[in-house]
Design a protein that fits this description.
Blueprint (H helix, E strand, L loop, with lengths): L2 E9 L3 H12 L4 E4 L14 E2 L16 E4 L2 E5 L6 E5 H4 L5 E3 L1 H14 L3 E3 L4 E7 L2 E9 L2 E12 L6 H6 L10 E10 L7 E5 L8 E6 L4 E9 L8 H12 L1 H4 L2 E11 L8 E2 L2 E3 L15 H18 L5 H29 L4 H12 L8 H11 L12
Parallel strand pairs: 1-2, 1-11, 2-8, 5-13, 11-18
Antiparallel strand pairs: 3-7, 4-7, 5-6, 9-10, 10-11, 12-15, 12-16, 13-14, 14-15, 17-18
Helix pairs in contact: 1-3, 1-7, 7-8
Length: about 400
């Protein structure tokens, strides 16, 4: 078997993988990224909304070619759609700011990694890992129909929600049904949509999740839905929820889908074990998705940066003990927020449309400087304490 030697092997050339490769290569490491698909950024499996707030942290300069729409804020609609919470971009957090063209965005991040010195193979899936003496030492990669051995001192798994690398390495990232949202999204054209806001609909229209409308330019938008897996009874039910919502809204009903994407999103707290001897998990593979919003692109990029930097520090000693610094950085960044948001997600999934209508009525009339769990609950508690009794533990 043909054999290659690198310092770091990154499996997956999505945003998390590309950022990991970029920052590892910047520190002088020999880095290889392998991507199973023949083209980076395709197919798109994302609602494509991000904020401006985190781009500086990972040294990404906004580029017009990968921005489809600039977003001023978000609107959250009550189940009866009578009450609308309107939020500026600062209040709405990490899901607004831009709606991306993920194909161009992902290619840009891969290019940044290559410019730093990383090597990239497309159409080259990892088919197994190499593990010796309790350490991950690389992977078997299929390239041009030939299986080759890629040896590396550190492997960074950035292979997304379905991460096989984590499973092969013995890291348990199995999810409960309640912590998975099944998603489907249409890119729709010939629709009427407010182009500078993202739109979110909650309640029984999307049990355990929500429906989103993310503008993609004039008369186009991503229209999608996420439904908690434990709320689904029949095959195809998620699509039926989305189709029923579109049918109820004339501004959408007149449109036509020009693309359909499906997938799943984790909505769990931060896992306790995302490193082991010779391996780190980043992004979706590490389940670093916000349990309420389902947003994970920013987290993927930031965790990728962390992993690349820690790889440089631990390259001479890629033990679990050394790589635990990455686990610690991830937990410091997200553990508390994700645990709290997981509790809120669980609570929201149990509320009736009537209760959600009352909550949105209250919240939409309050001045909240920034959308946060605490800010919302305190506003509700202030005016209607009887509505907040079951949320007291979150305060």
């Amino acid at each position: 078997m043909r054999r290659y030697e690198y310092d770091v092997l990154v499996v997956g050339a999505g945003p998390g993988g590309s950022m990991a490769a970029r920052f590892a290569a910047r520190h002088g490491l020999r880095v290889l990224v392998v991507e199973k698909r023949p083209e980076i950024g395709v197919p798109v499996r994302c609602a494509e909304g991000i904020s401006r707030t985190w781009l500086d942290e990972v040294e990404i300069e906004p580029q017009k070619r990968w921005i489809d729409a600039e977003i001023d804020g978000a609107k959250i609609y009550s189940p009866n759609e009578r009450y609308v919470l309107k939020l500026s971009a600062d209040q709405a957090g990490n899901e607004v700011g831009f709606v991306l063209n993920r194909e161009y965005f992902d290619k840009e991040l891969a290019s940044l990694a290559v410019k730093e010195g990383a090597e990239l193979w497309v159409k080259s899936p990892a088919v197994n890992i190499i593990k010796e003496d309790g350490f991950v030492k690389g992977a078997i990669v299929r390239r041009f129909g030939e299986e080759v051995e890629v040896r590396a001192r550190i492997v960074i798994a950035a292979d997304g929600f379905e991460s096989q690398v984590a499973r092969w390495a013995g890291l348990n990232t199995v999810l409960r049904e309640r912590d998975v949202d099944s998603c489907i999204q249409y890119r729709m054209t010939n629709i009427d949509v407010e182009e500078n806001f993202t739109h979110f609909y909650i309640g029984s229209c999307a049990p355990g999740g929500y429906i989103w409308i993310f503008p993609k330019g004039e008369n186009e938008a991503n229209v999608g839905i996420g439904v908690a897996l434990n709320k689904i009874k029949d095959r195809g039910e998620v699509k039926k929820y989305l189709d029923a919502f579109i049918e109820k809204h004339p501004n959408l009903r007149k449109g036509t889908p020009i693309q359909i994407v499906t997938g799943a999103v984790s909505t769990c707290p931060v896992p306790k074990h995302i490193v082991d001897n010779g391996i780190m998990l980043v992004g979706d593979a590490a389940r670093l998705i916000d349990p309420i919003t389902g947003g994970g692109l920013a987290n993927a990029c930031i965790s990728g940066k962390y992993a690349g930097e820690i790889a440089a520090k631990c390259i001479e000693n890629p033990s679990k003990e050394c790589l635990e610094e990455y686990q610690n950085k991830v937990e410091k960044k997200w553990e508390r927020k994700h645990l709290r948001n997981w509790f809120v997600k669980e609570k929201l999934s149990q509320l009736s449309d009537d209760t959600l209508n009352k909550l949105l009525e209250v919240i939409s009339q309050e001045e909240i400087k920034r959308l946060s769990v605490r800010g919302i609950l305190e506003a509700v508690q202030k005016r209607y304490p009887e509505l907040i009794e079951e949320f007291e533990d979150l305060l």
